[in-house]
């Protein structure tokens, strides 16, 4: 899939991994629509990049459907929506049970709702839009890139909700790729390790440095631009399909 001239949607595209991906796709010539729950940041970035913006809470299927429709409309004269990358996500730290009793259900449901159900909403609506695309010379109609985490495999103490949500994204990858393969639509998931994103920005600098030092090599936090670089490569490399790619500097997280 050529990025230049292709319609693209980045969900959660206003900050962190999503912002870096929005910048990368724009630099490569995509016809970009940014979707994000943060209207102020999303519109400002879209204005800077010359992209379109749509407000979107990934838990609300009508909003996801509208975001996909807007991205497809923006690129209707250039082959429709062909790239959809989902970076929207958040975390919650709490043990499954402790001195205060069991993990409350509400925050668990919220994390599942944003990270897993939100990813599924984008996946199903973007794939449906891509089915309408005319196939390219190789039969390809689109590429879907999702974001999991190495916590899907190495979930630490207190990560029960986050790990479950990201494990679900990992588990969707292969069946989604198999579902969509006959239509020429690929599905790939990136599982980042420790990246310098807003989720870690609030930590004191010594704590951030200690986290970076725990990575075997390079011994630092990942740069969101490195995530964006991999996402762009996935789009362009047709043989990547049905796979989850760890992007973690060989990190295997300890229990805590």
How is this fold's topology laid out?
Layout: E1 7-11, H1 16-27, E2 31-36, H2 39-49, E3 52-55, H3 61-74, E4 81-86, E5 97-98, E6 101-102, H4 105-130, E7 142-147, H5 151-154, H6 160-180, E8 185-192, H7 198-201, H8 205-213, H9 224-236, E9 244-247
Parallel strand pairs: 1-2, 1-4, 2-3, 4-7, 7-8, 8-9
Antiparallel strand pairs: 5-6
Helix pairs in contact: 1-9, 3-4, 4-6
Explain this structure.
The chain is an alpha/beta fold. Helix content is 45%, strand content 17%. It has a domain at 7-90 and 120-146 and 169-177 and 216-247: NAD(P)-binding Rossmann-like Domain (Rossmann fold, 3-Layer(aba) Sandwich). The chain is built from nine helices and nine strands. The termini are far apart. 45% of the residues are buried.
- Approximately how much helix is present in the residues? 40-55%
CATH class placement of the domain at 7-90 and 120-146 and 169-177 and 216-247: Alpha Beta
- Summed over residues and divided by their number, the pLDDT gives a mean of 96
Q: Secondary-structure element order, as H and E?
A: EHEHEHEEEHEHHEHHHE
Shape: globular
CATH topology of the domain at 7-90 and 120-146 and 169-177 and 216-247: Rossmann fold
Spatial gap, N to C terminus: 40 Å
Portion in strands: 15-25%
Radius of gyration over all CA atoms, rounded: 18 Å
Largest sheet: 7 strands, parallel
Please count the beta strands (DSSP E, at least 2 residues each): 9
What structural class do helix, strand and pairing data support?
alpha/beta
Strands of the widest sheet, in order across it, are 3-2-1-4-7-8-9
CATH architecture of the domain at 7-90 and 120-146 and 169-177 and 216-247: 3-Layer(aba) Sandwich
Number of helices: 9
CATH superfamily of the domain at 7-90 and 120-146 and 169-177 and 216-247: NAD(P)-binding Rossmann-like Domain
């Amino acid at each position: 899939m050529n990025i230049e001239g292709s319609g693209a949607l980045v969900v959660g595209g206003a900050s962190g991994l999503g912002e870096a991906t929005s910048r990368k796709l724009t630099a490569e010539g995509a016809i970009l629509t940014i979707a994000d729950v943060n209207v102020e940041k999303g519109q400002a970035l879209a204005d800077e990049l010359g992209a379109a913006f749509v407000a979107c809470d990934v838990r609300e299927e009508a909003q996801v459907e509208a975001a996909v429709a807007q991205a497809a409309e923006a690129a209707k004269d250039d082959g429709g929506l062909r790239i959809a990358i989902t970076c929207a996500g958040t975390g919650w730290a709490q043990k499954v049970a402790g001195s205060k009793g069991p993990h409350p259900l509400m925050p668990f449901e919220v994390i599942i709702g944003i990270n897993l159900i939100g990813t599924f909403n984008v996946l199903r609506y973007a794939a449906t839009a891509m089915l309408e695309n005319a196939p390219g010379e190789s039969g390809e109609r689109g590429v879907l890139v999702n974001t999991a985490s190495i916590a899907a495999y190495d979930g630490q103490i207190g990560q029960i909700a986050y790990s479950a949500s990201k494990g679900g994204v990992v588990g969707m990858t292969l069946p989604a790729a198999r579902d969509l393969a006959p239509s020429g639509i690929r599905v790939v998931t990136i599982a980042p390790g420790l990246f310098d994103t807003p989720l870690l920005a609030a930590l004191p600098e010594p704590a951030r440095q200690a986290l970076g030092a725990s990575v075997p090599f390079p011994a630092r936090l990942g740069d969101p631009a490195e995530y964006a670089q991999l996402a762009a490569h996935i789009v362009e490399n047709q043989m990547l399909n049905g796979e989850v790619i760890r992007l973690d500097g060989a990190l295997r997280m300890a229990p805590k």
